[in-house]
Structure prediction request, 97 residues.
Amino acid sequence: MTNQRKLRQIDILLVEDNPGDVRLTREALKEGKVLNSLQVVGDVSKRWNFSDIPARMPKSPHPDIILLDLNLPKKDGREVLADIKSDPNLRRIRWSS
Prediction:
């Protein structure tokens, strides 16, 4: 009997303003053979918050993982992280910075 696991796509939100880092992330996920859907948000303004995710990610309104650049130009990544942690619908999401 073979051990077959059903693979599930991981929905990832990448908050990154540097196109080079976005490209490297895509390459790393591809090389690592990670079945994923990657959505990229590069411009996080002071007015943008994570309650906007369902509109920005209609296929996956609650990503499984958020990869967050802490050095964002308009809204600091630490502010973004505070937004995530204060939202009861998003606080369960894993994050990496």
Summary: Strands lie at 10-15, 36-41, 65-68, 94-96.
